[in-house]
Amino acid sequence: GARAKMLSSSVSYADHLRLASEATRGEDAAARGLKQHEHQIALDLERTFPNHVAFRRACDDGVPNSFDDKRAANPETNNETTSDETKLPTVSDARRCRLGGSKLEPLRRVLLALAHALPDVGYTQGMNFVCGWCLLVLDNDEGLGSLDKDTEKRAVEECAFWLMRALLEDVLPGYFDPGLAALRFDLDALDDDFAAVAPDAHAALERHGCSVRCFTPRWLLCVMVGTAPAAATLRVWDALLLDAPGGASRGDALEYSKAMPSLRFRPRDVLRRCALAMLTEPGRARAIAVAPGAAEAVDSIRSAGRGVADLQ
User: Fold this and answer.
1) Helix H segments across the chain?
2) What is the per-residue DSSP string for 225-276?
């Protein structure tokens, strides 16, 4: 779907980026709105995977900020990190100085271009994590490895832009729109599913005055990035993108569905089912049900997914 969008569009990524830059110098309502998005994007840049070297600027002395290879950013909170299993792609010590903060400017440019291309969506917090993930994954795309470095960098940015367009418009339409109506609908559906699958745990949360709606929005909004282990997240993305309208040819989708049973469902259903699988992984629902208080129940929810080896 992303490639089809790119080939059929009369306005390129570079055009959107140029037009966005020009628009921010205007004074009309559209320009003011874009400036607000630009300001929020700038605030969120270094909040995106702050423990990943590609999203941390180097120190003034040329030595990057400390970076722990065993930790990666968790979108649930800027102050929490995930376990080894959920870490995003990392780099060796030898490459850290050269790569320190290398994805910050590409991330800013792609998000600004998206805000211009999709004015009804603009920019919503959470898009930075999704776009950052795209940039990291595409950076390892062997199909771009034959290009020279500068061309490869531009190609990664452009691919990330069109992949985000496909995700926002075709895979999860409405998720990032003002008001987040589609996200709220799916959170209600997730709560209903959880009540049906784990009634004791759901009842316990209600007694504590809690709900999975309060603690899982970022799971869905960030499309599992930083929540499930990286390998499981990639599997979720495969299912989402292949199941999206125009995401794959009918023959390819049918062939792949033999190994991906989740393709029987709509993309948003796949995402919700993955969240439900993490909430009900072995022992999780029981831990929530017997939690003595709200704090313990919440801890059980927030730690969900860290031990998941795969999501079916």
Assistant:
1) 2-8, 13-23, 29-44, 93-99, 104-117, 127-139, 149-166, 181-197, 199-207, 212-215, 217-221, 230-243, 250-257, 267-279, 284-290, 294-302
2) TTTS-HHHHHHHHHHHHHHSTTSS-HHHHHHHHTT-GGGGS-HHHHHHHHHH
Distance (Å, whole) CA 197 – CA 186: 16
Higher pLDDT, 250 or 56: 56
Q: Rounded to whole angstroms, how far apart are CA atoms 285 and 195? A: 11
Rg (CA), the chain: 20
pTM (two decimals):
0.78
- What is the SS3 assignment for 82? strand
Rounded to an integer, the average pLDDT of 184-203 is: 95
pLDDT digits (tens, 9 = 90+) for 33-48: 999 999 999 999 989 9
Segment 91-102, tens digit of pLDDT: 444 444 455 688
47: helix, coil or strand? helix
Closest CA to 238 of 251, 226, 227, 224: 224
Q: How confident is the model at residue 231 (pLDDT cuts 50, 70, 90)?
A: confident
